Amino acid sequence: MRGRSALAILLAVLLSVPVVGGTNNTTTMQDEEVMDPCMEDPEQPCVNQTSLYLWSNGQSTFWSHFNANETDNAADNNYSQQKDNGAINIDQRISMNPSLNKRLNMTLDGEIRVTLNLTVTGDWTNDNDADSACGPSDCEELNVTLWAGATQIFKQHVPQLSQGENTVIFSYRITEEQTLWDSSTANPSLQIQMKLKGNYQESNVIFASGEPAEFTLGLSGDGGSKVEMPIDPASWDEAFQAGGDDDMLPADDGGMLPGFLFTSALATMTLAAVYLPSRKDSEDIRDRT
User: What φ, ψ does residue 280 adopt, rounded to 5°?
Assistant: First the structure.
């Protein structure tokens, strides 16, 4: 009995000693939570960056990425074309640059939300009206297409624009075939197409007729124009990024610290040492029966 008491005391002492590994790991995890995981590669998608932003130098160069800041963007945050008399043909494919270097898993039936700030004037509707700039086939209403590499995700026709400033907002839901975006084949890009025509004419210094054509795209410097992506949080798991099972989610440890199992085992051993009968006690019990 004296030996079992000594064992119980020893185990109790062990239980009171902190589990060093668990404490250090917890501290490390807290330090990692303070760090922004997007800082390592700021133009790539990550847990805090799931929107694609649109940029231009204001002339003929366009690009996009997942950072809301861009020092090379046009100073006025606009790309614009204007023509008094004649056609403006817009066909810009704004591809991600630098290219996507991560695998992405889009949430099935998740919503892609597109927001574009546009200013348009002139005519863009085909008709037979002699007073309008467009003829039966001269113009084209706004079309917006999202690509994942060479794969078309959607093409949205937007006919309801009005003269002047417009905020275009529409959404699309991801299908089962569109969930996996691999970095080698699915670099995202947004294509914007529209053909407008102006018919402004000055008869003399006093009289003028018609309307000039203008197409201005507000870029992402003010956070306005963007493409919000329904990226599944499981995309940031290291196993998924390494090309593992696409359906595998991060393992759940139930919130237990690393030393929890060790501590539980010691507690069980202590209870066994105190309450289980010794060999002599067991023999006495058998003799009495």
Answer: -65, -45
What is the Cα–Cα distance from 21 to 36, expressed in whole angstroms?
25
Give the span between the Cα atoms of 105 and 231, in whole angstroms. 6
Instruction: Determine contact, residues 188/52, Cβ cutoff 8 Å.
Output: yes
CA distance 149 to 58: 24
Q: How far apart are the C-alpha atoms of 149 and 139, rounded to whole Å?
A: 28
Sign of CA dihedral 142, 146, 151, 153: negative
Residue type (1 letter), 85: N
Output the DSSP codes for 258-275: TTHHHHHHHHHHHHHHHH
Q: ∠ CA 142-146-152 to the nearest 5 degrees?
A: 110
- Judged by DSSP in three states, 281 sits in helix
pTM attached to this predicted model: 0.74
Prior bond to 45 cis, omega within 30? no
**Degrees (nearest 5) of the Cα angle 229, 235, 237?**
155
96 has which bridge partners?
64
Burial of 190 (0-12, 13-18, 19+ CB in 10 A): buried
Tens of pLDDT, residue by residue over 169-202, are 999 999 999 999 999 999 999 999 999 999 999 8
Calpha distance 289→286 (Å, rounded): 5
Distance CA 53, CA 72 (A): 13
Q: 19-64: per-residue pLDDT in tens?
A: 445 545 555 555 555 678 788 899 999 999 999 999 999 999 999 9
24 CB burial (10 A radius; 0-12, 13-18, 19+) = exposed
As given in the structure block, the two tokens for residue 238 are 């290291």
